[in-house]
Amino acid sequence: MLSVNTNAGAMVALQNLNKTNLELAAVQNRINTGLRVSGAKDDGGIYAIAQSMRADIGGLGAVKQSLDRVTSVVDTALAAGEAISDLLVEMKAKALAGADSSLDANARTALNEDFKALRNQIATVVSNAEFGGTNLINNTTAQITALANADGSSVITVLDENLSLGGAIVTLAATASFSTATQADNIASTIGTSLDNLNQALARLGTGSKSMSIHKSFVTKLSDELEKGVGNLVDADLARESAALQALQVKQQLGIQALAIANAAPNTLLALFQ
After folding, report:
1. Which CATH number fits domain 61-233: 3.40.190.10, 1.10.3720.10, 1.20.1330.10, 3.30.70.2190?
2. What is the per-residue pLDDT for 1?
3. What torsion do the CA atoms of 74, 78, 79, 85 make, to the nearest 10 degrees?
4. Between 74 and which of 17, 117, 201, 209 could a Cys-Cys bridge form, CB atoms 3.0 to 4.6 Å apart?
5. 0.85 exceeded by the pTM?
6. Which distant-in-sequence residues (6+ apart) come within 8 Å of 246 by Cβ?
C-alpha cells in the first residue's frame, strides 16, 4: 500500500541506519581508546574483573616502593657495618702492636692515639648510617618492615643490629684505650670477639637485603602478569576493528542511500494523479 502519511520503508531504513551508526560509534570508540571494554556499559562483568585486577596492580606498585625503601635502609646499614668491620680490623692491629712489651711509652701512646681516632670514627659511622630518617644500627629502631602483598596483609621484617660501641655486638667500650701492653692485649681480644659478632650481624642484614631483592623480582613479575591479564580482558583487536570500521562505513553509506530511496517512494503517487 502506498501512502503519504505512513512510509514503512523509510522507517525500516532509518532503523537499520541508526543501528549501523551505533555499531560504528562503538567501533570508533574501541579504536580511539584501544579498549574493547572501556566502561561498565560495554561489559559489566569483564569491567568489574579488570578493575579488581587494576587495583591489585596499583597495590603491587606500592609494594615495590616499600621494598625499595626498606632495601635502601638495609643496604645503608650494611655499608656502615662493613665500614665498621674495616675499622675494627685496623684497631685490632693497633692494639696488637701496642701489646708488644718491647715498645716504649711514647710509641704505645702514639698507637693509642691512632686507636682512639679509629674508635671515634666507629661512633660517627653508626650515627650517620641513616636513610629516610631510619637508622638500623644505632639501637633506635627495633625493626623495619616492607609490604609483601597488594592488600598489605603480609610484610617482610628485618630486625635492627645495634652496632654501637659497648653494645651486644661491638662489645668494645666507647671509651676503650690502652696505656700498657696488658691493656692493649685485652682490647685486641675484645675486638676479635666483636668482629665475630659483627660478621654474624652483617650476614643477617645481607640475608634481609637479599630477601627484599628476591621478593621485588617476584612482585614485578606478578604485576606484569596481571597487566597482561587485564590486556587480554579489555584490549581491542585493532586489526579486527579496522576491518569492522571499513565494513560499517560502507554499510552506513548504503543505509543512507536506502533511506533516500525510501523517502522518495511517495513521489510515485504523483504519477497516479496526472
Report:
1. 1.20.1330.10
2. 63
3. 160
4. 209
5. no
6. none
